[in-house]
Amino acid sequence: MTKQNILVIGFQKYDRDMYPPLYCFIDQLSKYTNLDYYHFRERGWFMNLNLLKIIRILFGSIVDSIGLLLRKENYQYIIAVDQYAYAIACLVFRGKTVVLWSHDIYGYAKHSIDNSFMRSYRKIQKHFLTKNQKIVIQDGDRLDLLKRILLIEDDVQLDVFFMPIFLNNVDIELTRSRLPVKPIVLQCGGLSCERLSDRLLRHYQNNYAHYTLFFHGFVTNEIMSLINESEMLPIISNARVPGDKVSQIIDKCDIGFIGYSQTDLNFYYISRASGQLVEFLRMGKPVIVLSETNMNEFVELHNIGIGIKDIGQLNDAIETIKANYAFYSANCLDCFSKYYDGRLYIPKILKWLDNTYFDEIGKL
Q1: How far apart are alpha carbons 26 and 244 in whole angstroms?
Q2: Would you say 40 and 88 are in contact if contact means Cβ atoms under 8 Å apart?
């Protein structure tokens, strides 16, 4: 069987520091296809910056677009990550099947921008999406949101492959049926006020007898200042760990902490779009979610952790998980295998690209 020639256009360089779900997708799909990857630097988040930065980013986008034009390979499919690269790819590869792989629904929704440029930008996306029809997106809620933002009518039928953020399976054996008196609570990824790291750190100052706090990832200046002012310090690891080794960090904790400050609907419909959640689930680590997003409902529905809306509820959530740790931990692995294991989607997505498969796995 002849392998398909596929081009994936993404927002990061292809190396082991890449966003793990994107790296995993490329790594797995390349086993079944002749896959090329192209780094397109811009994601469309530049319209709230000053004029000089906008000009510099637009110049970079022009350079990247020329690089796409110079590619002579005969690709059967082009998969572009997020709307900005998708719009550019559709303009460059006219007559080819360009697929939108939606990660974030961003820009105009987050910053409430509604100028002539953004309206034209949305019209281009709508035109090509309704023409090409093929879209990969995490679930039906995020699809409905994107259609509302792009003003795509309800009767317009899109060819959808529902694919949440996923990772490769890790073979582990659950050995903890009970937790120590002070479990290790880990927050990983971007440690910032947007991820409510400040609330967690402040809570720890008066509640360190209940848990040991562990921070791993990129620490913003604001959070680092709070750490320097704190009496009780968390364990801190800001080392750059390759994506395929993050599981070793996750395995050192007992409970995962995930915080989301809901800035727009992109961060409300987050249960199928959170790499942090998937990292914890595949290692059998129950999570405590501090947010007012649909992830709270998701973790409660699947019994993989506790959803809270106030940091003052953290101690009670920890005690609930401690009392039922084996139950929650086993459910985490079950949830991962049901929704977030890469083997559910690769190579199945190739049948969808060839119009021989219809997928409904994204429906709750």
Answers
A1: 13
A2: yes
